Amino acid sequence: MAYYTSTNKSELQAYNTLVVEGEGYDGIYTTDWASIIEHPNGTDYAILKHDSYETELTQEETLGAEWSPEIEL
Amino acid sequence: MSTLLNISDKIGLQSTPNPSLLNLYGGAAAAYSLRQLDYNYTGPAVTVRRDSDQATKDIGFVNGELDTASLEAFTTEDYVRISSDYSGATPDPSAATNSLTVESNQSALGVSEALKCTVTGSSPYFYLSGFGGSGIELNISFDYYIPSGQSLGSIRVGVASPEETFSTTGEWATANFNQTSSYSFVIFRANTNVIGDEFYVKNLVVTQTSANGFVTTWYDQSGNGNDATQGTASAQPKIVSLGSTILENGKATLEFDGTRVFNSSINLTAEQSAIAVATKSTSQAYLTSDDLNHHAIVSGFINGFESFDGPRFTITSNPTNTIGIVSQFISSTFASFYNQTANATGTTTYTSATTIKTIGGYEISGFRYNGKISELVLYSSDERTNQSGIYTNINDFYSIY
């Protein structure tokens, strides 16, 4: 699964809106394409890429382990 | 005869092949399944979104089992992705091109309003995108005309490799074929690099003939209204793959691939039981956990707030890719089981009421359950004394052991 990343959360929100409007989700049972993932550093964000929608944002093929919150043992 | 049928209808003999679990062992806090768990439950099992046109439909039960006929009819309903006669002033839908010009509303050999494609260089093609990725089954039909006397003798069209070749020249012909996509676009290629050669396309229709189905709502059959929901498309568990219901031991199930999860809010007392029919695909998994990295079937950990404050029962040592009953029973002592074998027993230290927040793992992707879940029943009571009966009811339906 590929992801788009940005330090500007609103760019990823705009991508989510692009997919929601393009796919025509009903807004009742389905309201979003994907949740925005926040990097633990608090400055980077990512969103799952939809196969049918391209954007100029940086694309990552996977998100590394550094994107995961600190794990409680 | 009619009297006999009426009586049998009233006592439920017509509607369920097995005694319903919740009629035998009632009082569940929440009960999710793709079979009917209560004779008196008349609601749907799930609401399903198909990914062709995003329409949704409630799917209920027939004879106590998920109505897979309605489910599959819904997800194999034809959906026209593209329909164009190319009569407009500009090509619609717009095409991306390479070494090819495309002009709509052109005439050729007595047919007007066609798309004219003219070669301008090497490797000429045009394509129409927006098909939602690979694996989609499509029917493609169109009329085409390749004038005779050119180097161009055929065109290739498709949504997967190898593309289909069409080689009628000198007259209009009709193409109609099915393909499962590996591209996210449909492409038309001219089999020549000779500049000025041309072909025409008219009446293009691309129809999606099957879709995947995803569950937006898994309904609580307990009567407590604890429906499990997911409004984010990419996180909805899958129930239909290309028109076919996903099955486990011949029974409908939900696929959680490590990225899917339901939201819920189920309050349980400190005395509690959890029984799930599940198949895990990776070794690491828990039945319940308050911790984010446990890939648990049910979790109380959400938004970084540890609200579950309860037991963590691993099922990591249980077999992968094998359907099983996993359960835990908690009061002053606890016991957890895989099928009829005890996984762990002891004196409980879990003394707090808990709230289940998710089904399918932690809310953040990367920590979710990877496998299938067919049924999940939660009690605010220790149902250990009923374990044998509950297991028999489940096993009679799912044939697990």
| Number of H- or I-type helical stretches of chain A | 1
| Annotation, overall tally of beta strands of chain B | 35
* Main sheet characteristics of chain B: 7 strands, antiparallel
Largest interchain contact: A-B, 25 and 31 residues
N- to C-terminal distance of chain B? 39 Å
End-to-end distance of chain A, in Å?
27 Å
Helix content bin of chain A: 10-25%
Outline type of chain B: elongated
Strand content of chain B: over 45%
Main sheet: strand order of chain A? 2-3-1-4
What percent of the residues of chain B sit in helical stretches (DSSP H or I)? under 10%
SSE pattern of chain A = EHEEE
- Whole-angstrom Rg of chain B: 28 Å
User: Based on helices, strands and strand pairing, what is the structural class of chain B?
Assistant: mainly beta
Helix count of chain B equals 4
Query: What ranges of chain B have pLDDT less than 50 throughout 5 or more consecutive residues?
Result: 1-16
Shape of chain A: globular
| Main beta sheet strand tally, sense and closure of chain A | 4 strands, antiparallel
Could you say which structural class the secondary elements and strand pairing of chain A correspond to? alpha+beta
Q: Which radius of gyration of chain A do the C-alpha atoms yield?
A: 13 Å
Mean pLDDT score of chain B: 89
